[in-house]
User: Fold this.
Amino acid sequence: MTSAASLWAALVLATAVNTSVVAGDVSNQVTSHDMQLSTEATQRTNALRSLAVALSLGSEALRPFRGLRSEDEDNKDRLNPAIPGMECYIDRILSFVSCYSPSIETEEAAALFTRLVDELQAALPSDRWIGRKRAPGIDSIQSYLYEDKKSPAHIDVDIVPRLDVREANSYMISMFAWTY
Assistant:
């Protein structure tokens, strides 16, 4: 083999190895990203299931879910465990949980709304909880309500438009959960 042919062979081999390494890195990144999404979904479903059980048992059962005092919200504590992708609080005076997503665009809001409704459906025992789409309220464009058949507990999920001059089509997902 001539030195030119050897050089070309080495160059082709180096390119092939480099391409497979890069492809492997992309494959690992996709797998890592998919695993992170799966882990978040599992954490969210587990947190929602635990919250639903506590709501069904009444306001006293929410005590263990009280995290650190909120620095931003008066009379509220952070929800513990947290629900990934949402900022959640438990009111110190009334028995309700409020959660909000960051501002997101229309398609992302619709996808997150559907994901939360589906995760709630998976997390809530079907013999106790019933879910139904409901007419949006004054400040929402889409709404879904879950009600416990054996207690006054409710979980309400909404897509709410955000008023932000920088982002014309900005929305957030709100979730309120309460018991009496």
Summary: The chain has one domain: 32-178. Residues 32-178 form one domain.
